[in-house]
Amino acid sequence: MDLSGKTALVTGAGRGIGKGCALEIAKAGADVVINDRPGSPDLESTAQEIRALGRQCTVIAADVFSREGCVQLVEQAVRQTSGIDLLVSNPAFSRRQAFLDCPPELFEKTLNGTLASGFHISQLVANHFVDRGTRGKIVFISSVQAEMPFALCFAYGAAKAGLNHMAASIAVELSPHRINVNVIEPGWIDTPGEHETFSEDTIAEAARALPWRRLGRPDDIGKAAAFLCSDAADYITGTVLPVDGLFRYKDCTLDHAEPLKANDAQD
């Protein structure tokens, strides 16, 4: 996966999955523009790690939950580099809330921060690709929650499901320009946000219950993003790639199956 000579824009890259994507894409040879919200305490340390790999790194703080923030980000990224070749769109907003009690404004904020923001940044970058005549790559970070209806996560799951469908439609429309558009669905990934939400004991217990016996890591998602951004994935577009260590099927493994009795086997 050689991304030499390419420049990638990665949103939400201060920590967690976004950081994992930025680092793995840099390891593959690309220069990287990293973004996070204004005031993020994490961007500069991520930039230092990327530069330590010998790659150029441009830091742009902008609020990608708004159209104005996305415009600011893309314009600055294009102005400060030779142009964008790859996009990893990683904005998301999630708060656990029961359906019956969910304030309408929280539902709307979740859709805006998770689905609409993906539309804004990808539309702006795709137009940049078309204007340059570049066969660019767009990778959306979704979630297995797009397929799995978790309690208290109805808004986030709906937003991610919409993101998956939007990405497939975008892939169809951009195919004449040979712009690849794909989606990664992470499972349970060991990020700082998870440790802010769950106790260490809860996370350790959950890891032991997974088929891979561990949570995913940001670099697991980053390696998948680097692949989808590479020429090796030239014929892959409109695809959803789960990277979850079988999280979706954790209750289907033999660990959860009752042993067959002799008469059951004969039946």
TrEMBL record:
Alphabetic keyword roster: Oxidoreductase
Stored CDD domains: SDR_c (cd05233)
UniProt cross-references to InterPro entries, sorted A to Z: NAD(P)-bd_dom_sf, Sc_DH/Rdtase_CS, SDR_fam
EC numbers: 1.1.1.47
Record flagged with keyword Oxidoreductase: yes
Highest taxon of the lineage: Bacteria
GO MF terms, alphabetically ordered: glucose 1-dehydrogenase [NAD(P)+] activity
Family per similarity comment: Belongs to the short-chain dehydrogenases/reductases (SDR) family.
Name by which UniProt lists this protein: Glucose 1-dehydrogenase
Organism this protein belongs to: Fuerstiella marisgermanici
